[in-house]
Every structure is written in C-alpha cells, then in structure tokens.
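Is adenosine monophosphate placement plausible here? Inputs below.
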Amino acid sequence: MSKRLIFLGPPGAGKGTQAQKLAEQAQIPHISTGQILRDAIAAATALGKKAQAYMDSGDLVPDALLLDLVRERLQQDDAQDGWILDGFPRTVAQAEFLTDLLDDLQQNSAIAITLEVPEEVLVERLLARKRQDDTESTIRRRLEVYRQQTAPVIDFYRTHNLHAVDGDRPPEEVFQTLKALVSAP
Ligand code: AMP
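Reply from A.M.:
I modeled the complex. Tokens:
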C-alpha cells in the first residue's frame, strides 16, 4: 500500500474533496498548495501578497514562491509516513523538482493518480462551487493553463506509476475506487 499519493487532474475534477477524505481515512496530511496559498492570502502574509494577483487571474504562481515551501512541508514530522499532494506538481519542472526532492528525502514509492473528467463537466462544477478565484474568466484561464502546463505532467508520470480514475461519477463511487487503489498491495 502506498501512502504517498500525487493527485493530478484538471481544476474541478474533485481532487480536493477526494484527497481530503482519503487523507482523513489514511491519517496522513492532505497537502494542497492552492489551500496553503489561499490561507496565506487570508492571513495577508508576504507569500499571500505576492501570490494573490496570479491566483486572481487563474495563472500559476512562480516556482520561487512554492518550491521551498513544498520542501519544508514534506520534511515536517507528520509527513514522514505518507501524504497526499493535491495541486502540486503543476508543471513538468515542478514534477522534476519533486522527483529529486523525494529521492533526497528518501520518500520512495509515490504513486500518481489522475482524475479524468470531461471539460464541459469541469466548467459546470467550477461555476457551481463559487470560490473567490472561480469567476468565469478565471476558470477559462485556469483550464487553459491546465491544458498547456499541467496536462504534460500526466505524461511525465505515465512512464512511472500513474493510475487513471474516472472522476465523472458520484463522489462516493470515485472514493471507493481510490480507496481500493491505495490499499492494493
Ligand atoms: P488549486 O486550489 O489547486 O486549484 O489552486 C488554486 C490556485 O493556486 C491556482 O490557480 C494557482 O494560481 C495556485 N497554485 C496552486 N498550486 C500551484 C502550483 N503547484 N504551482 C503554481 N501555482 C499553484
């Protein structure tokens, strides 16, 4: 059973919801870079101030704001027996960084999971959830950024350890599939 899970897939695929539930069940931290950034904005920290404009427009925040943060998070005590990464990596450069980092930290056997959902369903879901960075123009931009920068990350993991899961099903069904996947020997 792998307890190091990299959740991939477009915005609106259900990564956050599923990652949170699975992390609770497996008692490992759910590490969402988007949530860390939203918390930083809410707390008006230096990180939040630098990240806000990128997030408001649906663009990726620069690696300089994120890479050290991910490195530090994965070194914390609660992350030693496993974790679910949600929203990172989002570029091939970040995926390469993560591969090297996990090597350095001797955190082996991570598996990548991608949730597959058709684009028209994604737009509907994103419009329905009404988060601050979910306006129609931001959503369009985030999907474009996904296609251009994040979809290639799936190809990066295809040659390693990638599991594709149909995310266009009721959340409970998706959860059962994910649970079975992570508890497989
Ligand atoms: P999420 O909650 O994962 O959908 O992320 C929300 C926003 O946070 C994204 O639209 C990006 O602006 C920013 N973000 C989150 N994770 C990353 C990342 N790995 N690289 C760059 N930007 C990110």
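Short version: The chain has a mean pLDDT of 93.
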